[in-house]
Amino acid sequence: MPQMKTDTSLEQTAVSAQAIPRRRGLPRVQELGLVIVILIMGLGLSIFGYVAARPGEDNTFLNAGNLIDQVATPMSYYAIMAVGMTLVIISGGIDISVGSIMALSAFTGARVLQYMPVNAPAWQVLPVAFAVPMGVGLLCGLINGGLVVGLRLHPFIVTLGTLSIFRGITVVTTKFQELPPADRRIPLAFTDHFMRMEAWGHRPMPMVVMLVIAAIGWFYLSQTVGGREIYALGGNEEAARFSGLRTNWIKLRVYAVAGLTAGIAGMVWLGRFGGASTADATGYELTVVAAAVVGGGSLSGGRGTALGALLGTLIIAMIQDGIIALKWKVEYQLIIVGGAIVLAAAIDNFSEYLRQRRLAGAKASV
Question: What's the distance, CA 208 to chain centroid?
Fold first, then answer.
């Protein structure tokens, strides 16, 4: 009987591993659906922008300034964290502390950089500006993963606690609510000359960082053994363990990556705004989870892609931009994002129900 259980588990693991897209150059149906939604939303917002534009004024939506500065740049923080969140969700977990990690990373980076000369050279500034926020984020992610693995608690409970802990550390370790204070500045080599660097009249660096992180996430999930292990873990943890996978190590790894991406988002925030506040990124967890879920990540584990996370974030960013264009109250964003999570989860459950029925029919025919 134990041998039969092991064989069944191995078979389930193989099925879970097959969830990773193998085709090259062809996006999955999920991503194609998201692209269609984005095109429809873009068309609607473009038509509204054309109608609402004043004589001689460019379309308020369909122009490079709006698409880069008002859509791509603000969504960069969410998208970077959504890539890390997608890894966690694929593994069958969740991390709702990413907003607090982002704030702590940005605030710690500001605390260190404020003591460097404002005109310090880039070779001195940039390594510190990268290493400090990313190191803080990675450490927080390792703490989350260590607690999930070591205490064997549900990830929601662990990260709900660390959400408050990391935010509390940000507040109690300084007498300032914002850094740097009025008499100091973050070195220009990181702010004006890097993260706010202009190109063709725009400041695309946050968008560039976002695309690089999404590309790395895509490569890791679809082209490496480590990525396939995450899918196997989320598809069936017991089967993955019977197959010899080090499930605790995989869990620790995905939470570390989620913390690292939150640290990178904090770095981008710090460079763009030239400072940080103890209240930064409050409530960002909801948007990041929504982006990952709308992008195809399954809260039951086993499914999701980095490209889907990027497209899901873009949909939410377009909703935010549309709310501003329609001159609606900002609070409507909370309603729409919350509704998107519920709708995406319901669609995922229905899709899983249909998949199980097809599998049952295939077994019955055999």
Answer: 15
State the residue for tokens 């709310």. 323
Please choose, from the candidates 267, 245, 248, the residue with its C-alpha nearest in 3D space to the C-alpha of residue 256: 248
What global pTM score does this model have? 0.86
Cα separation, 318 vs 296, in Å, equals 17
The predicted-structure confidence for 151-184, as pLDDT tens digits, reads as follows 988 999 999 999 999 999 999 988 888 889 888 8
List the domain boundaries for the chain: 63-353
CATH topology classification for 63-353: ABC transporter involved in vitamin B12 uptake, BtuC (1.10.3470)
The neighbour count for residue 167, using CB atoms within 10 Å, is 21
3-state helix, strand, coil in the chain (%, to 5): 70, 0, 25
Residue 337 CA to residue 339 CA, distance in Å, equals 5
Can you list the alpha helix ranges (DSSP code H) found in 152-246? 155-172, 205-223, 225-235, 237-242
The string over 61-81, giving b where at least 16 C-beta atoms fall within 10 Å of a residue's C-beta and e elsewhere, is bbbeebbbbbbbbebbbbbbb
Cα dihedral sign, 10-12-13-18: positive
User: Tokens at residue 337, please?
Assistant: 């994002």
The sign of the CA dihedral 96, 138, 223, 249 is negative
Residues 6 or more apart in contact with residue 272 via CB below 8 angstroms: 73, 191, 195, 196, 203, 206
